[in-house]
Amino acid sequence: MTDTPLRLLLDFDAFSQRDHHQPPAFLHRRDRKFALTCEQQGRTPNARLWLEHMARLSGPGADRSAGDKAIRLWRRINTGFVLVGGLLGILTMLGLLFYDGGQRINITAFLAFVMLQLLLALFTTVQSIAGWQPWRWLTKRLNRGSTSDTVHRLQPALMARASHLGGLSFATTGLLTLLVMVVVQDLAFGWSTTLNTAADRYHQLILWVSVPWHWVWPAAVPDLALVEATRFFRAGGQSNAVNPEQWGQWWPFVVALWGVWVLLPRLALSLFSALVIRGKARQLLNNHPAMHALMYRMETPTIDTGNEHNDAGDMPDTSTPTGLSPLPASNLILAWAGADKPELPQGLMGPDTQVFGAGGRATLAEDHRAIGHIAEALAGQPGGAVLVVTRSWEPPTGELQDFLETALETWPPHVVVHLVPLSPDPNQPPDDRQLRQWLRFAHRTGGDGIGVSILPGTPQDPYVIREQVL
Amino acid sequence: MTQPPVFAVVGHPNKGKSSVVATLSQNDAIAIALEPGTTRQRQSYPMTVDGRTLYVLVDTPGFQRPRRVLEWLEAHSVSASDRAETVKAFVTQHQGDGRFTDECELLTPLIEGAGIIYVVDGSVPYSAEHEAEMTILRWTGRPSLALINSIGSEDYSETWQSALGQFFQVVRKFDAVRAPFEQHLSLLRAFGQLEPDWEQPLEEATGFLSEHRRKNQSQAATLIARALEDMMAYREKRTLTSAQASGISDEQLAEQLRDRWYRHQRQREQTLRTDIEHLYHHQRIQRQEAELSWHNEHDLFSEDSRSTWAVSRRYLTTAGFGAGAVSGASIDAITLGHSLGAGALVGGLIGAAGSYFYGDRLMLPALNIGVLKDGFKTATFGPVQDSQFGYVILGRAVDHWWHISHRNHAGRDFLDLEPADHHWLESLDKPARQAIQLAFDKCRKEQSMDERQRHKFIAAIEQSMITYDDWRLNRA
């Protein structure tokens, strides 16, 4: 489908416009995979292969070519120029060859017109190479809706080709009209100028103009005698000295003049403009921002660091339905997981306080023994309370939960259990966030049967203060 | 094909396992909360290059009942040689047992051959409570590495280091939220040291990650350059019919245009922010940043933005000279050097004078309200004529890029983009300054840049990113 650099560029441009809406990660994976496939097949990935690959994957029924629209538009513009050029060629030649039998057809005017055509052709080429766009208003109108920068940059070259094709058509129909007129009419050519030019000087000019064909078609190079004989002056009236046949002997020169200086340059410049378009299309493709991005995607390995999994919305419930309770008076302390190391705060210790240990380095059997000892101590204390001292920064685990559940089953039903999380600095209350996790744990494990307290006298004891106020 | 190395990140609950995984897998969508039990199931995070897995990180729940597990293991083991098998038997026997869900989840990858990455919190005192779980991990017989992560501000890492040294082959400190990228790579290399077969894939992975980061920086520069080009060249246009024109004064029209122009510029800037964040795989950042604002019709920005991000008049003059000289040099080229460099000199002087007189005033001669013609009135606002606008956008963009590129994916705090307190751009080299000024001038004049100029512009932006990084480093 991408048989010319222009079509390749337009297809690529159209495809890259569509890619704008794709997520970058997808594009990277897609193109890198294509590059790796090419590598396996021993091929060097390029835009043509890439587009073919994309078209193949889209399967039959997909757009035959994404650049078709632009190509069709320019084909229409070219056809328009060819038709208008052809028509103008006929009219212009008829105008140039207008001969009513009274006057001669002036070769000098012919030469000037050919020179003008040549200059126009050259100007068109120069303008396209320089990038001027005197036709922009026309292309803008025809190209409504398309805002591609690539097409915009290619317009001077495309417009030059349209113009040259129009010129070529102009020259061709002009030449055909000339030949028809030569056949069906008697044309009388002569030369005339206001300047004081001698026939030999004029002949020199004619020889110079005829250089390209003088060795191919010598009959199309007028000799000095014909030049001398066919000068005319409009004020001089009809000259009978010249054989009427001689007036017509200029026609091979006129045909060659038109063919070589109008038709051939247009033909050559049309071909040249096609080359310019190819070159420019290649250059634009190579410098296309999307091409750089594509090459980058093809050359760069796709790295997936495992960042697609998303469970950020699956957060635990961190609402805390209960608050801190005042610390009950108790002489039974259970230090969980070494919370009594190096020592328990003085505020907790009384003269008859008993401290038991469980969790941490203790074995499960030692945990059970501690539960049993506390149960024995509670037996003589109706309405007793047990303080379970923990390290606030070590989060409560299943082991503590197991321990408390077993203890609550073992201890008398009226016993109040209070968790007392300590902070690393005994003079400071535990961090608020840490306290909240203990409150949630107590609520989960024992419902109302387990409270959470902090040491009395520590500054910032907001929960206790709140309860006292209430 | 050999299996890629797998690393199970394990530990006590709430010690930052998920943070470590989030940072190393560059995933900011992993649930992280200061709540034990946030991770309920193990989750694999494979690192793949072109579909080939180089290593896998597995995030796991924390130990809940390690002493009970250890008691079971000890009761079922006869000698040291059967310990790994006994751990496997424990998992087989307790699959589906609600009490040991977390233990089964975290031990499964280990019995399947994963390496151990044991995470502790170095900001809290060492606790013997961890010894049971460390013993279980030792029983698995897998290669192991301990990571001392720091969640809080205190530092107890010394005690942890000596305790962990008795259980693990390697002990490393790693702050999941603050560790710079080089430390991520160094940690991954350390993972590779745990077993000879793992060294090569981890070495390869760090190479890819390093290269990927370098390319990300270039990509970020391209994104910033594109946004700057868009914003500097943007023009807000409104065409009114005669009836509409009669119903609105020029002042109101100007006000409307300015409003719309600012709204567009803010949106474009936000798009750039999101693009940069997505480039670095940050999908969920909550940002706090002063938005583009102005005080009165002559000022593009608030006084703060100007003093923070705009460059000095001297800077503008030198950059303007350079940019003018580049334009003037084309005259020398046309005359095939016969102008003896006068083009460059004159161009440079014009550029410098323009920058000197127009710079630092934050003027906005960008408003153009046409007269009523053919029943229509056209009013435009922009492109902005003041290159300081570009420097403010550039400063803000580079600052944001820096924060994003240095932000670990474990970070969940607000990204607070506080303005910098120094004209860091002053340390940018001359060619880069000139390339930036030239690009701004081109946009101002509504001229498009060719590929070579655009390439230089992007390179200059990248250079300014490096300069900013250096400045931040030295400031710290």
UniProtKB/TrEMBL annotation, chain A:
Q: Which InterPro entries match?
A: DUF2868
Instruction: Specify whether Nucleus is a keyword of the entry.
Output: no
| Top-rank lineage group of the source organism | Bacteria
| Keyword annotations | Membrane, Transmembrane, Transmembrane helix
Give the residue spans that cross the bilayer: 79-99, 105-132, 162-184, 250-277
User: What is one Pfam family matched by this protein?
Assistant: DUF2868
Q: Does the keyword Transmembrane helix apply?
A: yes
Designated name of the protein:
DUF2868 domain-containing protein
Q: Which organism is it from?
A: Marinobacter salinisoli
From TrEMBL, chain B:
Please report the stretch or stretches of sequence annotated as the G domain.
Answer: 7-92
* One Pfam family in the UniProt entry: DUF3482
List the protein's name: GTPase/DUF3482 domain-containing protein
Q: Which organism is it from?
A: Marinobacter salinisoli
